[in-house]
Amino acid sequence: MARSYLNEARRRVAPKRERIRPIIDRLAAAYPDAKIALESRSDLELLVAVMLSAQTTDVNVNHVTETLFQKYRRPEDYLAVPPEELERDIFATGFYRQKAKALRGSMKMILEEYDGRVPHQLDELVRLPGVGRKTANVVAAELGNPQGIVVDTHVRRLSQRLALTRQEDPVKIERDLIRLVPREDWGRFPHLLIRHGRRVCIARLPRCEECVINDLCPSSRV
Ligand code: SF4
């Protein structure tokens, strides 16, 4: 059992099924504008931005896509240039070779199998080269069709501290959260935890004294 979970288990709070509603409501009130930080104006731009965001910051991706999206407007555009040119254009996001390869592979499949349109179903999105479950979840949720819950480092840490899961593996954490979080909140739930994780429940030293859900959290130090 994870140490964080052991610590949590020592404190008494209501069962997670009773806590989840007020946790969501209070975080939603605290962060009414919590949403994806990546900028995009179409399904295609959203997919590309999320694919580029692996291992880098959203600010960095937004900086790159500001000019990228002026040059690459359709899936065909990513295949019309030599691979090295695309690599140069996304260089600043890091891992540019793998990302360029994934982008080209995805654009090819989108053109050949999806009529040039970004699919909305999770099982279709994960078929695209270089698109893992996390990327697919983010894209599906932003397209208004969440079919899972995005588990990144913040969602994982906060879910454990709040004793919403005792799992370590992101897929198993997602499974726990899907059972717990009402479906209509699947899309915004990760954004709320991410915002709270960046501002208050920070990794090294959570600011429990200023946390709006500290009475609902078994890991609270106040
Ligand atoms: S800041 Fe403290 S009280 Fe709030 S969720 Fe994190 S560990 Fe719990």
Structural class: mainly alpha
Q: What's the average pLDDT? A: 94
List cofactors, ions and other ligands.
iron/sulfur cluster
Rounded Rg: 19 Å
Order of helices and strands: HHHHHHHHHHHH
DSSP strand count: 0
Unreliable stretches, pLDDT < 50, 5 or more residues?
Answer: none
Number of helices: 12
Describe the 3D structure.
The protein is mainly alpha-helical and 222 residues long. Helix content is 56%, strand content 0%. The relative contact order is 0.16. Iron/sulfur cluster (SF4) binds at residues 161-162, 200-201, 206-208, 211, 213-214, 217, 219-220.
Notable features of this structure?
222 residues, 0% strand, binds iron/sulfur cluster, elongated
